[in-house]
Amino acid sequence: MPAHDRPRTPYNLPLVGLLALLLLGGLWYAGLFGGRSTASAAGTPATTSADPWPTAPATFTPVPTQAAVVLPTATPIALPSVRALGELAVVEYTMISTQTAAGPDTNMVKRFLGRDQVTVRVVGNVRVGVDLTIIDQTVELQRDGRGVRLQLPKAKVLSVDTPRDQTIMVDHQQRWLLSEYPGLELQAIGFAYNDIYHQVADNPDMMGLAQEMARLRITDHLRGLGFTDITITVAE
Predict the structure, then answer these.
(1) Span 117-128, mean pLDDT?
(2) Selection from 183, 198, 192 nearest residue 122 by Cα
(3) Shortest CA distance to 135 belongs to which of 83, 212, 211, 78?
(4) How many CB atoms lie within 10 A of CB 93?
């Protein structure tokens, strides 16, 4: 019998439906678990066969508490006791004077008998400076922080020293009768002393130099005590 003339065998519909359901169920199951596996693989890094390096645990080091910084406080400079410096000699001059002392020649008899007279040559060492003991510290010394203002007295001759071994008798005369010679040598030395004193005291250049030297000396002294702003004037 020809193939197209054969009777068609009817499909088993229940069996076909069951197969379709099984196929759909398998596809759903594969999609569900396949998605989970993919997500798990994407979120988990690949591991190697080598063991990982151990990670050191985090350490905690406390920060030490810093001590409070104490700022130094300025210590006020004490008012200097300038008077304690006393008579401050700053320069010494060496002067020479030749003087003559003569006895009285009041009548013709004494003139006939001769003359009492002596001439000496004297060397004098003259010390010049300022007398700081006369400063009134409540008025003439003022302090303002690190500044100080001081009024110095004028320079003056503090002493005249005439060494005996440097005094030379240049000439002398003595009456052979009624002599008044004793004492004339000391009188001549006294004249020389006064002359030497005034040679310095009456010389403006010498006294001006001493005044400036005293100012510089006091300035250095005050700066050594810590003062930075120093004003020194000279009393009129």
Answers:
(1) 94
(2) 192
(3) 83
(4) 18
